[in-house]
């Protein structure tokens, strides 16, 4: 259920409300990082989508990948739970900031 950083064809500069990903592309229990938009989108349970900043709260490094249920920072080894953005492994001590999204059909939009 792991997913990695994503720079696919749906990665284009987004305005608020612009589709960012297909809901069917976000694995249940995992997530994907959309680097150009700086967002992590997860699906903790089937049909429930959440979004967080993809920037580590320790020193601002971009998260590099999702492995299982955590999004990982390559700079200092911090890991964040994709279900709620909380810190799973330090040295980061603050959770990821939530981002607003909406699901319309099979598309997830940044709001």
Summary, kept brief:
The protein is mostly beta strands. The protein has no helices and eleven strands.
Q: Could you characterize what this model shows?
A:
The chain has 111 residues and is mainly β. The protein has one domain (5-110): Rieske [2Fe-2S] iron-sulphur domain (Rieske Iron-sulfur Protein). Helices cover 0% and strands 39% of the residues. It is built from no helices and 11 strands. It has strands spanning 5-6, 19-22, 31-34, 39-45, 48-53, 65-67, 70-72, 79-81, 87-89, 101-104, 107-110. Strands 1-3-4-5 form a 4-stranded mixed sheet, with no helix packed on it. A 4-stranded antiparallel sheet has the order 6-7-8-9, with no helix packed on it. Strands 2-11-10 form a 3-stranded antiparallel sheet, with no helix packed on it. Strand 7 and strand 8 form a beta hairpin. The radius of gyration is 13 Å and the shape is globular. The termini are far apart. 32% of the residues are buried. The model is unreliable at 1-15 (pLDDT under 50).
Please name the defining characteristics of this protein.
Rieske (2Fe-2S) protein, globular, single chain, 111 residues, Rieske_Fe-S_prot_C, disordered N terminus
Helix content: under 10%
Basic shape:
globular
Low-confidence stretches: 1-15
Mean pLDDT: 88
Q: What is the CATH homologous superfamily assignment? A: Rieske [2Fe-2S] iron-sulphur domain
CATH topology: Rieske Iron-sulfur Protein
How many separate structural domains?
1
Spatial ordering of strands, largest sheet? 1-3-4-5
Strands, total number: 11
**Structure annotation, total helices:** 0
**H/E element sequence:** EEEEEEEEEEE
> CA-to-CA gap between the ends?
26 Å
- Report the sheet with the most strands, covering strand number, pairing sense and barrel closure: 4 strands, mixed
CATH architecture: 3-layer Sandwich
CATH class: Mainly Beta
Strand pairing plus helix content: what structural class? Answer: mainly beta
Radius of gyration, CA atoms, in whole angstroms: 13 Å
Beta content comes to 35-45%
């Amino acid at each position: 259920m792991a997913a990695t950083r994503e720079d696919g064809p749906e990665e284009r500069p987004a305005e608020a409300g612009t589709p960012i990903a297909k809901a069917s592309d976000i694995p249940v229990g995992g997530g994907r990082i959309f680097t150009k938009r700086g967002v992590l989108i997860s699906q903790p349970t089937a049909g429930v989508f959440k979004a967080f900043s993809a920037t580590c709260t320790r020193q601002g490094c971009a998260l590099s990948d999702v492995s299982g249920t955590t999004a990982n920072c390559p700079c200092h080894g911090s890991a964040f739970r994709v279900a709620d953005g909380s810190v799973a492994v330090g040295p980061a001590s603050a959770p990821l900031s939530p981002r607003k999204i909406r699901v319309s059909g099979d598309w997830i939009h940044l709001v």
